[in-house]
Design brief:
With 166 residues, the protein is α/β, with parallel strands linked by helices. It has one domain: Uracil-DNA Glycosylase, subunit E (3-Layer(aba) Sandwich), CATH 3.40.470.10. It is 30% helix and 16% strand. A six-stranded mixed sheet has the order 1-3-2-4-6-5, covered by helices on one side. Strand 2, helix 3 and strand 3 form a beta-alpha-beta unit. The radius of gyration is 30 Å and the shape is rod-shaped. The mean pLDDT is 87.
């Protein structure tokens, strides 16, 4: 027999119905458990080991990380600052262009060096040019790209004056 109206059941079944405790628990927990949503772990391809939380953003569409002659110049600057390639993370923003918040969450930089306007990540407030400033607990230096510095001594000098403060 099929009963369409649940109110009709009380006329058909006149006896009291008792549920066992286990059955009550089953009826009380009618909602299905929500599936756990896992955020996929992001992995960025970068040069260096990021031991000192020093993130360097570059833009080289034709290279995996940075041009060889520019890497040599950058490493000599790092050596003068008492750092090595293992202390920094060199990230080429031309290969993948993540949001600023994602970059800072992944790398947790204390120092952020942005080489050239094309290297500014999406979602970041445009920093002052060639001037160290504090931003969200980190030192930020947005300066010339190596392409601009390699051919101009004044740009190199202005860059080095700011690098000394980091």
């Amino acid at each position: 027999m099929k009963v369409e109206d649940p109110n009709a059941l009380r006329f058909i079944l006149q006896d009291d119905i008792y549920l066992l405790k286990e059955d009550k628990d089953n009826y009380n927990n009618v909602s299905a458990p929500l599936p756990q949503i896992e955020t996929p772990q992001v992995n960025f391809n970068y040069l260096g080991a990021n031991k000192k939380n020093f993130l360097i953003l570059v833009n080289y569409p034709e290279h995996e990380f940075i041009a060889d002659d520019h890497l040599t110049a950058l490493e000599s600057i790092l050596i003068r600052k008492g750092r090595s390639r293992d202390d920094v993370a060199i990230f080429n923003i031309a290969k993948i262009s993540p949001e600023y918040q994602l970059l800072t969450a992944y790398f947790k930089p204390r120092i952020l060096l942005i080489l050239g306007q094309q290297s500014i990540p999406a979602g970041m407030k445009h920093p002052a040019f060639n001037r160290c400033e504090s931003n969200e607990g980190m030192q930020v230096l947005y300066t010339f790209s190596f392409d601009a510095m390699m051919s101009n001594t004044d740009h190199k000098k202005a860059f080095w004056d700011q690098m000394k403060t980091l």
